[in-house]
Amino acid sequence: MSDQTTNGATQAADQATGPNFTVEKIYVKDVSFEVPGAPAIYSENIAPELNLNLNQRVQRLAENAFEVVLGVTLTCKAGDKTAYVAEVQQAGVFGLAGFDAQTIDALLGTQCPSILFPYVRQLLSELIQAGGFPPFFLQPINFDGLYAETLRQRSQQGQVGTIENDPPVGNV
Questions:
Q1: Are 22 and 94 in contact (CB under 8 A)?
Q2: Quick one: pLDDT at residue 1?
Q3: pTM, whole model, 2 decimals?
Q4: Would you say 95 and 65 are in contact if contact means Cβ atoms under 8 Å apart?
Q5: How far apart are CA 102 and CA 25, in angstroms?
Q6: Domains in the chain, ordered, with CATH?
Q7: Which residues contact 102 (CB under 8 A, 6 or more apart)?
Q8: Which of 87, 113, 117, 151 has the most CB atoms around it within 10 Å of its CB?
Q9: Is 157 exposed, middle or buried (0-12, 13-18, 19+ CB in 10 A)?
Q10: Nearest 5°: phi and psi at 161?
């Protein structure tokens, strides 16, 4: 069978079944938790200051497969001392077939991180409690809004790109 026939058959099959979005695998890619001032930090009675950094990376694995990594770093300071630093990189492999490039970009920037977020939230909370600190519950994140901001920044910079080569990164 020639390449043209094979590709034509694949395209016809994709059109017959329509677009397909699948979650192939969800996994923890990296975790770190540090309490640099332990045990003295536990006796500090200073109101904590939290700094949350959120980032996302996308990597194409195959024609219709992408790895999306949602990273969260939470730094808690007590005065001038770092109480703890918690870092979680939650990843997933997603199948996206039958979509145009713009739709794939939007799905990678909104739906995929939204699927990963509850896993990040749970693991972050468990790490902080296991570290001897009061529970921390990460508030919901509007990934549609973050993606819209990324598109706005791209258009201001005159960039035409996709989430694959220009992922949204920000502080929340």
A1: yes
A2: 47
A3: 0.81
A4: yes
A5: 23
A6: 15-171 (3.10.420.10)
A7: none
A8: 113
A9: exposed
A10: -150, -175
Length of the chain (residues): 172
Mean pLDDT confidence for 110-114: 97
Query: In this predicted model, which residue has the larger pLDDT, 145 or 17?
Result: 145
pLDDT tens sequence across 153-162: 888 887 655 5
Residue 39 preceded by cis peptide, ω within 30: yes
Predicted confidence at residue 167, as pLDDT, reads: 45
Please give the backbone phi and psi of residue 93, each rounded to the nearest 5 degrees, phi first: -105, 125
Give the whole-angstrom CA distance, residue 108 versus residue 147: 9
Q: For residues 154 and 106, give the distance between their C-alpha atoms in angstroms, rounded to a whole number.
A: 14
Residues 117 and 162: their CA atoms lie apart, in Å, by 21
Which comes out higher in pLDDT, residue 154 or 144? Answer: 144
Q: What are phi and psi of 129, to 5 degrees?
A: -65, -40
Rounded mean pLDDT, 11-30: 82
pLDDT above 70 coverage of the chain, percent: 83
Annotate 67-117 with three-state secondary structure.
Answer: EEEEEEEEEEEECCEEEEEEEEEEEEEEEEECCCHHHHHHHHHCHHHHHHH
HSE at residue 62, side-chain half, CA atoms within 13 A, is 8
